Amino acid sequence: MKNLYLLGATGSIGRQTLEIAETAPERFRIIALGADRDVEGMTELVRRHAPRYVAMNDAAAAATLAIRFPDIEVGSGKAGLNRLASLDQDDRDGLFVNAAVGIAGLEPTIAALKIGRDVALANKETLVVGGDIVMPLAREKGVRILPIDSEHSALWQCLEGERPESVLRLVITASGGAFRDKSRAELEHVGVADALAHPNWKMGKKITIDSATMMNKGFEVIEAMHLFAIPLGKIDTVLHRESYLHSLVEFVDGSMVAQISSHDMRLPISYALHHPDRVANPTERLDLAKIGKLTFAPIDSERYPCLGLAYAAARRGGNAPAALNAANEVAVALFLAGSIPFLTIETIVSTALEQLSFIAQPSLAELLATDAAVRDAVRGRYARQLL
Ligand SMILES: NC(=O)c1ccc[n+]([C@@H]2O[C@H](COP(=O)([O-])OP(=O)(O)OC[C@H]3O[C@@H](n4cnc5c(N)ncnc54)[C@H](OP(=O)(O)O)[C@@H]3O)[C@@H](O)[C@H]2O)c1
Questions:
Q1: Fewer beta carbons within 10 Å, N or C terminal of the chain?
Q2: Would you say the CB of residue 123 lies under 6 angstroms from ligand 1?
Q3: Homologous superfamily, domain 2-148
Q4: Which atom of ligand 1 is least distant from the CA of 201?
Q5: Counting atoms of ligand 1 from 1, which one is nearest the CA of 150?
Q6: pLDDT per position as a tens digit, 145-204
Q7: Does a cis peptide bond (omega within 30 degrees of 0) precede residue 276?
Q8: Regarding the domain delimited by 317-387, which CATH topology (the fold level of the hierarchy) does it fall under?
Q9: Are the beta carbons of 234 and 169 closer than 8 angstroms?
């Protein structure tokens, strides 16, 4: 029996994680659930899964839940989220599932690693911002980081049992997001509802916008570099509109090994939760003959500048990816609030990188300070739109 400590439980990945856990009640027990502020969503989950511990980032949300569930321990704020990740320190077989969105996921990941707990990771920002700290810590503690993202799950499956020196390059596929058929001129007038209409995946709002700008692909490149200890120059991307081939590895002998399946996050979640076993799950099976063909095309870097900005930040290293992420998080929130046009997202991110006070080997505290400073600078510059 594996105990699950799940952050981001009320979100898209969080709920699908609970669904997969429910299909194997003899294997998984839900011990702790956490989220930001969705009290009603969490109330429903607590009634269904009866966790021992609940953490809400928002103090008022935590207080409401503490009144509703007097028999359950409820934590709040950063301390509450970190406690969720490191609850029951002696439970070495437990799994921390990080399905939170944003940099809020970084410190709980570190808290879990510090007590030697494996982490199933959906939260992108953990490795984008803190990969240089998180991966050495995981190695030092001898714990595993099990990727949940479909692209990294695909790469993980393709790389299992292979020697690092056999790998020529990783190729990460991209659907192209909601605006893949629009010209740059048309992008000047797109709205929030258009950007949220992803052609293949149903995901949380932030990642759906990141898919439309292709920042999501840039984040995935940075994550892959850390997760698989592969130099940035050996990670490529390719446009694959159908989203069935989730990524591939090219080996030195010319073989390309790919992972293909329906676009359903329950499969990579199931793979991470059950690893090393493969277990039947409710995902739709692919009928290759019905699909007929899979298409591939180069990604036009002028069409998607955010991808280039992510590569540039990764190449520079240090606190540059933290600045990239912070500027992007604020810019996406501004766009979702209807405060800035779509194309201003890339302007905000590129300005943040230009104005960065660079630190080559930042500590965790310096990464968090970079995050705060960049957020303040962007919010300051766009204060009028925020009113
Ligand atoms: N959805 C996908 O298919 C997919 C695929 C690959 C990777 N990912 C990555 O997985 C992560 C989650 O994505 P999602 O699509 O599931 O997002 P989502 O549907 O927006 O859910 C986000 C979750 O994070 C919680 N949260 C937000 N801010 C928080 C904070 N400050 N502290 C604690 N919890 C917080 C939310 O709580 P409230 O509900 O209370 O706001 C919610 O439970 C992201 O990093 C995303 O890039 C997602």
A1: C
A2: yes
A3: NAD(P)-binding Rossmann-like Domain (3.40.50.720)
A4: 3
A5: 6
A6: 999 999 999 999 999 999 999 999 999 999 998 888 899 999 999 999 999 987 887 889
A7: yes
A8: Rna Polymerase Sigma Factor; Chain: A (1.10.1740)
A9: yes
